[in-house]
């Protein structure tokens, strides 16, 4: 435990700084997060010096005009970040800067993942923002060899040493075998958080894929479409399976005759799959609309439809998933489900820090948002 003076230091409050002000709820933010940020800002501004004891939880709650529970949760969050240090029977102190431990997080990507891709770029943007706020370092790793070969290590080395002394792993959209291999590190005290995926009981931060697909199908159903084709990604990824299952469930609920589903072997259609898609689109009584469960799959639908002489949306409406900068510049601009990727990355780092500090961390599912554009029409 960090030593503290017998009598906590008292110093005159900077009159210019003034008292802490009541907080007001921010749209889309939990109240304790608003309180946490206000208190953290006060510490950064020098209202509370390193080593100084804070007012009691009751006094802070009165200053912020919030409940004791909300204030306590905000202080717990700052304690988990290493900003505050609670000493039993003596109070809560601002941590000396030199005492703060920098957490090291390994961000593990699939071998084929490109940082230039909008998906990974936005995720890492959110992760970097959270790392700066929480005083963490990120180590980007590509799982270039099967993870089961190194975790646990055959030579008896601990996972911590094998993966660079990291305090936690953030596994981005891993294959099932990679997630399973990393699950063993939980037993060694090195937590792993799945990002954009689910696997067993491992903590995850993901998009609510069932809600995402339900929104897409509802948008088409409301516009009169009753023959809807699903084009999905590789079936060995949890997101792909979840989206396919949600499509079937939603179509059944709407009593919509789902067209034959095309499940790709990867994140894009290969030539044979494009021919299959062309046959489905050109068949008698074929689909009037497509839900493409990935941005690059939507591009393939545009390509195949054009080659078949089908105009979007005149002959075929399309809803995609993913909203990079190019989506509104397609011809026609793509109606799509925008995933909160920056927020996803931010939440993943926060979850990892909580797990490192021994705090229980429930899995998180964030909601995607429909962005209507010109690729859909009513029939």
From TrEMBL:
The keyword Transmembrane helix does not apply. SMART domains: HTH_GNTR. One of its GO terms (molecular function) is transcription cis-regulatory region binding. It holds the Pfam family Peripla_BP_3. Residues 1-21 are annotated as: Disordered. Keywords: DNA-binding, Transcription, Transcription regulation. InterPro entries: LacI/GalR-like_sensor, Peripla_BP_I, Tscrpt_reg_HTH_GntR, WH-like_DNA-bd_sf, WH_DNA-bd_sf. The keyword Lipid biosynthesis does not apply. It comes from the Bacteria. Residues 29-97 form the HTH gntR-type domain. PANTHER family: HTH-TYPE TRANSCRIPTIONAL REGULATOR GALS (PTHR30146:SF109), LACI-RELATED TRANSCRIPTIONAL REPRESSOR (PTHR30146). This is Putative GntR family transcriptional regulator. It comes from Phycisphaera mikurensis (strain NBRC 102666 / KCTC 22515 / FYK2301M01).
């Amino acid at each position: 435990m960090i030593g503290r003076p017998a009598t906590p230091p008292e110093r005159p409050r900077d009159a210019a700084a003034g008292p802490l002000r009541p907080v007001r709820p921010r749209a889309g933010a939990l109240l304790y997060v608003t309180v946490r940020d206000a208190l953290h800002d006060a510490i950064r501004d020098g209202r509370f010096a390193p080593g100084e004891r804070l007012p009691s939880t009751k006094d802070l709650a009165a200053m912020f005009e919030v409940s004791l529970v909300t204030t306590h949760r905000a202080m717990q969050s700052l304690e988990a970040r290493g900003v505050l240090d609670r000493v039993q029977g003596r109070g809560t102190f601002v941590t000396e800067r030199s005492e703060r431990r920098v957490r090291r997080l390994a961000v593990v990507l699939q071998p084929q993942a490109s940082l230039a891709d909008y998906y990974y770029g936005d995720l890492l943007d959110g992760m970097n923002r959270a790392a700066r706020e929480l005083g963490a370092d990120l180590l980007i790793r590509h799982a270039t060899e099967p993870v089961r070969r190194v975790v646990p290590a055959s030579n008896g080395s601990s996972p911590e040493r094998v993966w660079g002394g990291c305090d936690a792993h953030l596994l981005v959209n891993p294959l099932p075998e990679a997630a399973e291999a990393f699950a063993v590190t939980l037993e060694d005290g090195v937590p792993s958080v799945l990002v954009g995926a689910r696997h067993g009981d491992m903590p995850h931060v993901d998009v609510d894929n069932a809600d995402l697909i339900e929104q897409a199908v509802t948008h088409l159903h409301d516009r009169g479409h009753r023959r809807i084709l699903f084009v999905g990604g590789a079936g060995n990824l949890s997101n792909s399976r979840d989206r396919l299952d949600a499509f079937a469930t939603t179509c059944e609920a709407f009593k919509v005759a789902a067209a034959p589903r095309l499940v790709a072997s990867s994140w894009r259609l290969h030539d044979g799959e494009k021919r299959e898609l062309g046959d489905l689109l050109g068949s008698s009584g074929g689909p009037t609309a497509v839900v493409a469960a990935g941005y690059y799959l939507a591009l393939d639908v545009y390509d195949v439809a054009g080659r078949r002489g089908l105009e979007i949306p005149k002959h075929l409406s399309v809803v995609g998933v993913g909203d990079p900068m190019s989506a509104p510049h397609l011809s026609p601009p793509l109606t799509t489900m925008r995933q909160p990727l920056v927020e996803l990355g931010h939440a993943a780092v926060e979850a990892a820090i909580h797990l490192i500090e021994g705090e229980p961390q429930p899995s998180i599912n964030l909601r995607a948002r429909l962005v209507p554009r010109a690729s859909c029409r009513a029939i």
